[in-house]
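Support reply, case 0932

Customer input (verbatim):
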Amino acid sequence: MQIRQQITNSELLLLSCLLLIFFLATETVFAQKIPTQNSPEILQFGSTGKNPLSLPSDVAAYNNKVYIVDGSNHRIMVYDLQGNFLFNFSRKGTDAGQLNYPVGIDISTNGKVYIADSGNKRIQIFSEKGIFLSQFSVKIGKKTVRPVDLVYHSRSGNIVVSGSNHRIMIFSPKGKLLRKWGNNGINQGEFRYPATISELKDGRIAVVDVLNARVQVFNIDGSISLVVGGWGVLPGQLFRPKGVALDRHGNFYISDSYMNVVQKYSDSGSFTGVLGNKGNPYKMQTPVGMTVYKNRLYVTEMRKNRVSVYQLVD
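Our regenerated output:
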């Protein structure tokens, strides 16, 4: 295991050096050749003020409010659409309503806020105002699992959870395990660290499969429907995907935390461009969780401790 880890680190170091040389040598030419999706940057927020973010990981929006998972501060930060701080809720702990390194967030159609409370191996549910409502452990049999992300499935009312056990799990609102699929592997339907989840308009589920460098789309019964991306460092390929969001037309936006870009794919999975403006791709700092709200893309930049907002242009 130690030898294999050394090899892996050496390979990554070599790849990093090659990428650095490549970008330094051809930065202007490369930028001109990359197809970009014109999406003007509107604002950035979260890194300043009395309550700055610390390693934020995910974002959701509801009723003209933006909810950000402030992981290292063990809380949820809430802002208005102009980036003005409104309120926060929760703190570190194991009691009901307290969080321990939360990672993922989603909000139901009726305003319930669902949090993947990873350190406590549970899902917690709050009101729109941050009042604790209920919780349940993420369990398969007697074994508890760290949740990574979750999505409220609007068609069924159930909660779809990605876990550190390389599986997707579906729970009832009261926490009963209804279905699960996947295991550790490279084949379709298998995962190597599933991360962010999003729901498509037709009820299918998009899952970021981090180390397999792809997004897998499933029907709600667990059958595979579509695979987007694939490993590589060229436009349209993925190296370390972390987030996925969908616009009103069904286009996929996938963040790559290693390449520091967000790439756009059509509803059929075809690459269409890198998020940018006037032909220049945006270079972000560890983009992870994202959401689309009112035709704006909200991107969590973990290393910059902020959320950046982009106007989507049809």
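We compared this against your earlier run and they match. Two observations from our side: The helical segments are 2-33. The longest helix spans residues 2-33. Please reopen the case if you see a mismatch on your end.
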